[in-house]
Design brief:
The chain is mostly helical. It is built from 18 helices and nine strands. It has helices at 3-9, 57-63, 87-92, 187-191, 211-224, 239-245, 273-276, 297-305, 309-313, 318-325, 330-344, 360-367, 376-388, 406-411, 423-429, 447-452, 454-459, 491-504; strands at 193-194, 233-236, 254-256, 397-401, 419-420, 438-439, 468-472, 478-479, 512-514. The strands form three sheets. A four-stranded mixed sheet has the order 5-6-4-7. The protein is globular. It binds zinc ion (6 copies). The site of one zinc ion (ZN) has 8 residues, from loops. The structure holds a DNA duplex.
DNA sequence: GAGTTTGAAACT
DNA sequence: CAGTTTCAAACTC
């Protein structure tokens, strides 16, 4: 059997038989090149949303501050340009709503990779994106039409323009041999990006030329699992907490909605999605022997209750908490304060404080923090989005992204796919359910550090946070090279789904907002530097990030413990 | 770079 | 919904 041969030759049909149905309508016609988004086929919708705007991240990024939406500047629509990061953005943009921000951060640097990105998108009606640039490098990317991400899940990455050294631009690259990049196994596909040069995939159909196929496939997958492309991480944003903290939210971490199921890695390696996303495990995780440096699931619970990690530290009895605490935020608040302090630091990237690990509370607080607060402008859009909810075909979704801060950028981390959304939005949607997604990039270079310094995460706020929302209705796609993202459209469903779910059981934390997609890692391991110097960025990848120095081994969780 | 390990996606 | 297979990445050497 030659698998390869099969793949190559075959057409996507194999994978999806459906494609032909719909998509052809129009979509094919549009090409990403010029238009990125598109996809219309299905409706288009996705991208272009009606009302307002559809901007995409790019636009936002470019403009940034203002943006936020509102303006969008000119291009909004067209737009989908790419984005890039800018510092200013962060500053300016606060993001939206509130929500989110980011978190992650990482202390170390990776040096090379960095990129971060940011981006955000919006989709449905409006969206904004913001980006934050990485630290040093910040740069902007241009906007050309070549790239954009539009999708909901996107994650961004950043890149810099120039950098002499390495750089890469994007990191996203896959090496799919059998899936033609039309299944979730493919990072590119899963992230909503088209495969680009850096990809070493064989028989790839995840390209603009096959837009219809891609969209169609995506839809199919979505049909089965509405949450398939939905952001997996949710941030918990409790306004409550935030208030206490004083500022807004804390971005730090988010939680996976689904949770991980690690049996052997103890959540200490990137095999764990939670770890990869730079977030701690939560009660929804089914991991065995969890030692996630960002926070163990048990701790999480405890935290919520108000206990410090220490209390929980042992593995013992924490489980009980899980069930219970579900909503205690108060405890968190306390912690938040602590964290808060650290957070406040301006840039600290260095985290260092080992005090807590990952408190949820922090996150919240940060999130809320002021940085983000946006102006009312955002609200509007959001609202609209909400109302409209629209979407075209399938559903809509909203996401917010926040990229990382500069700091993060430096490192290069990113999240997989995260989308951040704000709480507010959620409120609008469904109060309890969260539908928000956030994305951020995180850096992840060293998790441990973060853990230690819980604050680290918090700190993110610095300026960097950029976030943006995105809603995406239909499907949007982006290619990396060109980067076309597609947006997915889960939206509505999210609300329903999530709401339901959350309540049901996985997410006890109703308060959290959703976040992102998957997570993200920072960088792929290898980076090839593509030639993309121009703009590209990419977002997320499933696994990839530079390994921490120390943590090579699973067991080493020395630090924390 | 090849080979092993890992956990999610996909399939049954 | 659970069990198994498939898959590509993370990791190891
Ligand atoms: Zn692929
Ligand atoms: Zn690819
Ligand atoms: Zn591909
Ligand atoms: Zn795990
Ligand atoms: Zn987990
Ligand atoms: Zn775990």
């Amino acid at each position: 059997m030659n698998a390869e041969s099969e793949s190559l030759e075959s057409s996507p049909a194999d994978l999806n038989a459906t494609s032909s149905n719909r998509k052809m309508d129009q979509l094919s016609q549009f090409r990403p090149n010029s238009f990125p988004l598109q996809y219309s086929g299905t409706s288009s919708l996705s991208v272009s949303r009606p009302s307002a705007i559809g901007f995409h991240l790019n636009s936002i990024f470019n403009t940034v501050p203002i943006t936020c939406g509102a303006t969008a500047n000119t291009k909004l629509e067209e737009d989908y340009m790419s984005v890039q990061g800018m510092e200013s953005a962060s500053a300016c943009c606060p993001i939206s709503s509130n929500a989110v921000d980011k978190f992650s951060f990482i202390p170390k640097n990776v040096g090379d990779k960095s990129k971060a990105l940011i981006a955000a998108n919006f989709a449905s009606s409006e969206s904004l994106h913001i980006t934050a640039p990485p630290n040093d490098k910040s740069k902007i990317i241009s906007e050309q039409t070549d790239n954009f991400e539009y999708s909901r899940r996107t994650s961004p990455k950043t890149k810099r323009t120039k950098t002499p050294s390495t750089n890469d631009g994007d990191d996203r690259r896959c090496n799919c041999k059998k899936t033609k990049c039309l299944k979730l196994y493919c990072d590119c596909f899963a992230a909503g990006f088209y495969c680009a040069e850096p990809c070493a995939c064989q028989g790839c159909f995840n390209r603009p030329d096959y837009e219809d196929t891609v969209l169609d496939t995506r839809e199919q997958i979505e049909s089965r699992n509405p949450l398939a492309f939905a952001p997996r991480i949710v941030q918990r944003v409790n306004e409550f907490n935030s208030m206490e903290n004083g500022n807004r939210a804390t971005p730090s971490s988010g939680r996976h909605k689904r949770g991980c199921n690690c049996k052997k890695s103890m959540c200490l390696k990137k095999y764990c999605e939670c770890y990869q996303a730079n977030i701690g495990c939560s009660s929804g995780c089914r991991c065995d022997g969890c030692k996630n440096v960002y926070g163990r699931k048990e701790e999480c619970a405890a935290t919520v209750l108000g206990m410090n990690k220490e209390m929980v530290s042992d593995e013992i009895g924490k489980e009980r908490f899980d069930g219970i605490f579900g909503k205690n935020l108060e405890g968190m608040a306390n912690k938040a304060d602590l964290l808060h302090a650290e957070l406040y630091d301006p840039h600290n990237i260095t985290p260092l404080t080992p005090a807590f690990q990952y408190p949820e509370s922090e996150s919240k607080s940060q999130i809320v923090s002021r940085s983000y607060l946006p102006s009312p402008e955002f609200d509007s859009p959001l609202s609209s989005y909400v109302d409209s909810s629209k979407t075209s075909r399938t559903s809509n979704s909203i996401d917010l992204l926040l990229p990382a801060n500069k700091e993060s950028l430096s490192l290069g981390s990113y999240d997989w796919r995260l989308d951040y959304t704000n709480m507010e939005m959620m409120d609008q949607f469904s109060p309890e359910s969260d539908t928000i997604a956030l994305s951020h990039l995180t850096s992840l270079s060293d998790p441990p550090f973060m853990a230690m310094a819980s604050s680290t995460s918090s700190k993110t706020r610095d300026s960097a946070n950029s976030s943006h929302f995105q809603l995406s209705p239909g499907t949007g796609y982006v290619s990396s090279a060109g980067f076309h993202h597609w947006c997915s459209s889960p939206i509505t469903p999210m609300t329903s789904l999530e709401g339901t779910k959350s309540h049901q059981g996985l997410d006890p934390d109703s308060e959290f907002c959703d976040i992102l997609d998957y997570g993200a890692p920072d960088i792929p391991r290898d980076r090839a530097t593509p030639s993309i110097n121009q703009l590209k960025f990419v977002p997320q990848i499933r696994r990839g990030s530079p390994p921490p120095s120390h943590l090579n081994k699973l067991g080493s969780s020395s630090s924390g413990a």
